[in-house]
Design brief:
By secondary structure, the chain is an alpha+beta fold. Helix content is about 60%, strand content about 25%. It has a two-stranded antiparallel sheet with strand order 1-4. The longest helix is centred in the C-terminal third of the chain and has 33 residues.
Length: about 170
């Protein structure tokens, strides 16, 4: 499963879990559990940013390892199906006539080709350095947001923590 898809599924599961949490559930939780639940929801955008930067770093590393990137070129192509024949017979008086028509169903299909394209190693290294610097900043921001949030939420009553989650 692709890392991006995995994070979307994790995010969806988190939303579903948080969405199903009631005030009664919050009253049964420890302050640390409430903080975990509330803060996980609040820093989800920072988690996605960190994951996107990690995916960017992995992509650049893969390009540097391969020495090329793939450029995808797509175009729509008309495709025709098998010939279909429809016949109708008309009885007019003593003779009958049969008229047949041929038809070939048409559909549009998108056809893509991947073309290897040489990379600029300097440009890819610059991207890698940029992503790495951004990742360090995003991780620090996420850590600070998590610490601040959990310190605030553990001091709240179950009712106040639940209201903050909404």
């Amino acid at each position: 499963m692709a890392p991006r898809t995995l994070w979307v599924l994790v995010g969806l599961a988190t939303v579903l879990l948080v969405g199903c949490t009631t005030l009664e559930d919050f009253q049964k939780m420890t302050p640390e559990q409430r903080a975990q639940r509330v803060c996980s929801q609040q820093i989800a955008p920072l988690d996605r940013q960190v994951q996107d930067l990690r995916a960017g770093i992995a992509d650049v590393n893969a390009a540097l390892s391969a020495g090329y990137r793939l450029h995808r070129s797509c175009r729509d192509v008309e495709r025709y199906g098998d010939k279909q024949v429809t016949c109708t017979t008309s009885n007019t008086g003593p003779s009958s006539t049969t008229k047949c028509t041929e038809y070939r169903p048409r559909r549009i299909e998108t056809v893509c080709t991947d073309q290897p394209v040489a990379i600029s190693f300097d440009l890819e290294r610059d991207k890698l350095n940029s992503f790495s610097a951004q990742l360090a900043g995003a991780e620090a921001q996420r850590h600070a947001a998590w610490s601040s949030c959990t310190q605030d939420v553990v001091r709240l009553s179950p009712e106040a923590a639940y209201a903050r989650m909404k």
